[in-house]
């Protein structure tokens, strides 16, 4: 393989007669944002689930940091540094921003609160959590409840939680969903800088964000890749225009 951080080779998954992903081979290289786009039902979520370990492929394999992780479960891939941020936020909204990051640093999201008290007195853990908040620009919001944050700040907090686990790659499922124009613009600027931390595989419907951020774009239609290329190559591709972008490109 190349110097790719993450790669899929011929990933396929059928549901009955429907081939939701069909021999999908993509890679994610150091420092890049690689966007996956395609119409509803194209297979993006199925592909992400296969990459992150939530769904076993019928055929093909997934490599992460040079290792074949196809048989690994979600938790094992996460521990190895594959950080997924979710379209539906998994944050505890009535707890503080710092508490959420501490829980992430403990790898104990959703665990009973009895684990939190010792965590708060653990200096190393607290330092790591505060450093993660600083890296996403939320250091001044540490004591706020998550419910007091804007949607965009919550996305940044999710990234802070992921950062405590020293990610080697991010997989993001529609981070712009639910954000207004201003929130999208702010998150776009944030993700632009985040790629230096770890490369990002980005599933996103917001084409302004995709065209602003992506180093490469892969277009999925009916489970198959119809094109992978730079923003300019994708915009100029007759196949992509016919199948997906229509007159919008
Ligand atoms: N668990 C499942 N059982 C049966 N069919 C499924 C299942 N999951 C997905 N599919 C089907 O597989 C196809 C691909 O779905 P998928 O959710 O991966 O597409 P998508 O590109 O993520 O769509 P969207 O942009 O709407 O999120 C769709 O036709 C969907 O109905």
Describe the protein's architecture and organization.
There is one protein chain. By secondary structure, the chain is an alpha/beta fold. The chain has a domain at 6-81 and 167-248: P-loop containing nucleotide triphosphate hydrolases (Rossmann fold), CATH 3.40.50.300. 37% of the residues lie in helices and 23% in strands. The strands form two sheets. A six-stranded mixed beta sheet has the order 7-8-9-4-10-11, sandwiched between helices. Strands 1, 2, 3, 5 and 6 form a five-stranded antiparallel beta sheet that branches. A hairpin with a 2-residue loop joins strand 10 (216-221) and strand 11 (224-229). Helix 3 runs parallel beside helix 6 (151-163) and helix 5 (123-135) crosses helix 6 (151-163). The longest helix has 14 residues, at 181-194. It is globular, with a radius of gyration of 18 Å. The relative contact order is 0.17. The structure holds adenosine-5'-triphosphate. Residues 15, 18, 20, 38, 40-46 line the site of adenosine-5'-triphosphate (ATP). GO terms for molecular function: ATP binding; ATP hydrolysis activity. Residues 6-247 form the ABC transporter domain. InterPro entries: AAA+_ATPase (IPR003593), ABC_AA/LPS_Transport (IPR051120), ABC_transporter-like_ATP-bd (IPR003439), BCA_ABC_TP_C (IPR032823), P-loop_NTPase (IPR027417). This is Amino acid/amide ABC transporter ATP-binding protein 1, HAAT family.
